[in-house]
Amino acid sequence: MTDKWMMRLAMAAAMLFCVSATAMAAEGGALQQAGNDLGDRASLQRGAQAYMSYCSGCHSLKYLRYSRMAEDLGLTEEQVMNNLNFTGASFGEQIQVTMPHDPATKWFGKMPPDLSLISRVRGSDWVYSYLKSFYVDETRPLGWNNTVFPNASMPNPLWELQGIQHAEFGKSEGPGIDPPVTALKIATPGNVDARAYDQTVRDITNFLEYAGEPAALKRQSLGVWVVLFLALLTFLAYLVKTEYWKDVH
Q1: 20 vs 17, 44, 123, 146, CA distance in Å?
Q2: Which of 2, 81, 129, 171 is the most buried (most CB within 10 A)?
Q3: Taking phi first (over 0 means left), then psi (-120 to 50 degrees means alpha), and beta for anything else, what does residue 143 get?
Q4: 1-10: per-residue pLDDT in tens?
Q5: What is the pLDDT of residue 18?
Q6: Number of neighbouring beta carbons within 10 Å of residue 26
């Protein structure tokens, strides 16, 4: 590769880094690490329950079916239909919202977005940080704001669990510029402590990562067998090679 092409690649990498850094800064700065694990089936089950209880009223998962979720998460049809299906849909249908379309459009201006691919588009760390970064803001129409996604047009869906969170502001950088949020403090405790809330958010994040690519669960389990097969094939190829070349000096 010539020096000219090396220079172009370096410039392209620098531009991508700058764009990513700018986008992150525009949406609240550094993100917290979710630390979720798709291999943790119990976490996925808890995440499904929490999502259906607190999020599915407004946000659908239209690329995921109840039956597929049951198969992947080790749930029975009865468990799903009795505890996770609040729309009256059949077992084989997609996960839709419980909120009617016309009232939702009237209340919010448009239907809240589907979240099937939110983890793939934004990343799990973004989802995790977003659900932890709501704070009370009386200047907003719904009374809430978010440091990761400023001026988000939704309230904190988990406020009963987390509690009421307030923001502490720093010094404004100039006239007409809003002061930056320097810290978030719980003013009124929620129904669970901070550690339990973090786990709930991590479970929801885990579930949304699964929902974005359900095949990832099977791909990971198959990956082990693929590696073992390749190792066995390599060993057999080595034996064949030594047999063919043993008389060659």
Answers
A1: 5, 29, 13, 20
A2: 129
A3: left
A4: 454 444 444 4
A5: 39
A6: 10
